[in-house]
Design a protein that fits this description.
It comes from Flagellimonas pacifica. The structure is a single chain. The chain is α/β, with parallel strands linked by helices. 38% of the residues lie in helices and 21% in strands.
C-alpha cells in the first residue's frame, strides 16, 4: 500500500489540474480500497488497444494517461520518420468524454509539431482505419471502448497500413511511453496543425464500402431490414451505405438511433447479447422483416438475426454469420474465377468450419491469434496475395482490405446482399447456413465468459488459467484429448503419442485442447475486459438438411455436458 500511496501522491503536484488533485486527496483520506484500484498498475495495451474505466489514476482513462500514451507515440513517430511531416487522423465514438479526450489527444499531437486530421463529429472505427491510408497518415487514433459498459473508454492505435499496431511497433511504443513521466506531456496546442474533417472523407469511405460490399444481389426491393445502431456511431454510415446500395426497405429503431454514451435502452451495447437486439427483433416481428442488424458503439461488430425454419427471428452467433459471409464471398470470387493467390482468414478460437470451407473451394486459409490486428498484419505480410474476407467469433468481419480492422458497415451490406440473394432464389440466410453444414460439416460453438473485476479478479483469472494448464483435461464427454496446444510455449503436443510440433504464431496466453472426435476447448483471458473466456467447438456430419433440428439438439446437449463437466 505504501508504494500505491506514493504513486498517488505524485499526482498532487502543480502539473495536475485542481479537480484531479482534489479527487485524489479525497481518495487518500476516505477510500483506500478505491485508491488501490486506481493506482495499483498502469493501463496496458491489449488485443484491442488500451481500455479502462474513466477517472483519475494510472489505472484509469483520463487526459493524463491518454496524454502520456500520445506523447510516447509522438516521440516514436518522430524517431521512425525523422525527415517527414508526421500526419495522424483521429476519430471518436459516442461515449462520455470521447469528444473532449479526442480534442486533448489532437492538441498534444499538434504541440509536438504533428499534423492532425480530427473528425468534427463522431465516426465509426472502420472509417478511421480507412482514413489512415486515404489521407496518407502515419498513424490513426480512435477513442472508443467498443461494447464495454458506459463507464469505460479507450484508445486504439493504428499504423501506416491502417491496421492496429502489432509487434514490433507495439512493444517499442510501450517502451517509449514507459520511459516518460507525466510531466513530459506537451499540452500546449498548435491550432494551426489541427484540421477538422468530415464529409469529404465520408464520401470516399461510403463509396468504397458500397463498391466492396455490393455484388448485384437480386430481390433488394423485396427485402426488409430492421437496423439499430444501439446509440452508437453506425448511424452515421450504415443507413447511407444501404441506401446507396439499393436497400430502401430499412426500418431504423429511432429510440436507439441517437448517439448516447449512457446507452439508456440496453443493459449492454453489445450485439452479442440477445437483450441488446430485443427492441429491433420485436419490430422485425411486427413488420415481417427478413433481417435485423445491430452494431456496437464504434461500429466494428455486428449482430444479425434472421428468420429460422419456424419463421421466428433468431440471433445468429459470430461464427455463423462469418461462415455465411465467407461462403457468399467465395461464391462471388468463384463466378469470376480464382487467380490462385486468394486467402480467407480467421482466428484460433473461432470455428474450424471456415478452414474446411476454404479447403473445399481450393482457397488458402490463414489462422491468427485472437484480434483483428493479426488479420490486418496478414494482409501486410502477404501483400502479393488477395484477401477475400475474414472474421472472428466475436461478431467481427472484414471484407477485402480497404479497411484493416473489423468493419460492421461493409459487413452489414455484405450480409444483406447474401440474404436478399438467397431469398430471391427461393432460399434464406438460415437455409443457406444449414446447407453449409451439410456441405462442410456441422460445427457448433459456445462461449463461456466469466467476469472477474479488480485486483482480486485479475489474480483469479491468472490462477484459473494456471489450473487449466497444470491439471490437463484427459477426455471430454468420453472423447480422449489428443492434442494440447500451448501458445505460451508455442508447442502443440500429442498426449497420446508424445509427438510435438511448433506453433508458428506469436506467444499468447491461450491453451487449446482437441479431442479425437474434433471437439476443441480454448481458454484465454480477454485482452480488453476483466474476463476469462472458454470457447467450445463441437462438430458432426450432417447428412441431410431435414436432420438439422435433431442433430442441432444433440450438439446442444453435448455442449451442455461439456460446460458441466468442466465446471464452467
Amino acid at each position: 500500500m505504501d508504494s500505491i500511496l506514493s504513486t498517488a501522491q505524485t499526482w498532487l503536484t502543480d502539473f495536475f489540474d485542481s479537480e484531479t488533485k482534489k479527487e485524489i486527496e479525497n481518495l487518500i483520506a476516505n477510500d483506500t480500497e478505491e485508491l488501490k484500484e486506481r493506482f495499483y498498475k498502469n493501463l496496458e495495451f491489449g488485443t484491442g488497444g488500451m481500455r479502462g474505466i474513466m477517472g483519475v489514476g494510472t489505472n484509469r482513462i483520463n487526459k493524463y494517461t491518454l496524454g502520456k500514451n500520445t506523447q510516447g507515440l509522438c516521440n516514436y513517430l518522430k524517431r521512425s520518420y525523422p525527415n517527414e511531416e508526421i500526419k495522424v487522423v483521429i476519430a471518436y465514438d459516442c461515449r462520455h468524454n470521447s469528444d473532449t479526450l479526442a480534442r486533448t489527444v489532437a492538441e498534444i499531437f499538434s504541440a509536438n509539431g504533428v499534423k492532425v486530421f480530427l473528425f468534427s463529429e463522431l465516426r465509426t472505427t472502420p472509417e478511421l482505419s480507412f482514413s489512415v491510408r486515404h489521407l496518407n497518415c502515419h498513424a490513426g487514433i480512435v477513442l472508443t471502448a467498443s461494447h464495454n459498459p458506459p463507464e469505460y473508454n479507450g484508445y486504439k492505435v493504428y499504423w501506416t497500413d491502417g491496421g492496429q499496431i502489432v509487434p514490433p511497433q507495439d512493444g517499442e511504443i510501450i517502451a517509449e511511453i514507459d520511459s516518460l513521466s507525466f510531466e513530459d506531456i506537451k499540452f500546449e496546442a498548435n491550432d494551426n496543425l489541427i484540421q477538422l474533417i468530415n464529409k469529404d472523407v465520408d464520401e470516399a469511405f461510403f463509396s468504397e464500402s458500397v463498391r466492396k460490399g455490393s455484388f448485384g444481389a437480386k430481390g433488394k426491393d423485396n427485402f426488409k431490414i430492421v437496423f439499430t445502431s444501439l446509440h452508437g456511431t453506425s448511424i452515421t454510415a450504415i443507413p447511407e451505405v444501404l441506401k446507396r446500395a439499393g436497400y430502401n426497405n430499412v426500418t431504423i429503431i429511432e429510440e436507439q438511433a441517437k448517439p448516447d454514451g449512457a446507452f439508456p435502452t440496453v443493459e449492454s451495447p453489445n450485439p452479442e447479447e440477445p437483450e441488446a437486439l430485443k427492441m429491433a427483433i420485436k419490430k422485425a416481428e411486427e413488420i415481417g422483416a427478413d433481417m435485423v442488424v445491430g452494431t456496437d458503439p464504434d461500429s466494428d461488430r455486428l449482430g444479425i438475426a434472421v428468420r429460422n425454419l419456424d419463421g421466428k427471428m433468431e440471433l445468429l452467433n459470430g461464427n455463423q454469420t462469418m461462415v455465411l459471409m465467407t461462403k457468399f464471398l467465395l461464391d462471388q470470387y468463384k463466378k469470376k474465377g480464382f487467380n490462385g493467390n486468394e486467402f480467407v482468414a480467421s482466428t484460433i478460437v473461432s470455428t474450424p468450419m471456415v478452414g474446411q470451407m476454404a479447403k473445399a473451394y481450393g482457397v488458402e486459409y490463414k489462422e491468427s491469434l485472437t484480434g483483428f490486428k493479426w488479420i490486418g498484419k496478414m494482409i501486410k505480410d502477404f501483400s502479393d496475395s488477395t484477401f477475400i474476407g475474414g472474421g472472428e467469433e466475436s461478431f467481427g468481419y472484414m471484407v477485402g482490405d480497404f479497411v484493416r480492422d473489423k468493419d460492421a458497415v461493409t459487413s452489414t451490406l455484405l450480409a444483406c446482399e447474401a440474404a436478399a440473394d438467397a431469398k430471391a432464389n427461393g432460399s434464406s440466410f438460415y437455409k443457406e447456413l444449414i446447407d453449409s453444414y451439410v456441405n462442410f460439416g456441422f460445427y457448433k460453438e459456445h462461449l463461456v465468459s466469466l467476469t472477474k473485476k479488480g485486483i482480486s479478479g485479475a489474480e483469479e483469472i491468472k490462477q484459473m488459467l494456471i489450473d487449466f494448464k497444470e491439471n490437463p483435461v484427459e477426455s471430454v464427454q468420453g472423447s480422449k484429448v489428443i492434442w494440447i496446444e500451448d501458445y505460451n510455449t508455442s508447442i502443440a503436443k500429442n498426449v497420446q503419442t508424445g509427438e510435438e510440433r511448433n506453433i508458428d504464431l506469436p506467444k499468447s496466453n491461450v491453451l487449446i485442447y482437441e479431442t479425437e472426435d474434433g471437439t476443441r476447448i480454448a481458454a484465454r483471458p480477454s485482452g480488453t475486459e476483466p474476463k476469462v473466456k472458454f470457447y467450445i467447438s463441437t462438430n458432426v456430419k450432417l447428412e441431410n438438411a431435414s436432420d438439422y433440428k435433431s442433430v442441432n439438439s444433440q450438439l446442444d446437449t453435448k455442449i451442455e455436458g461439456i460446460v458441466s463437466e468442466l465446471n464452467l
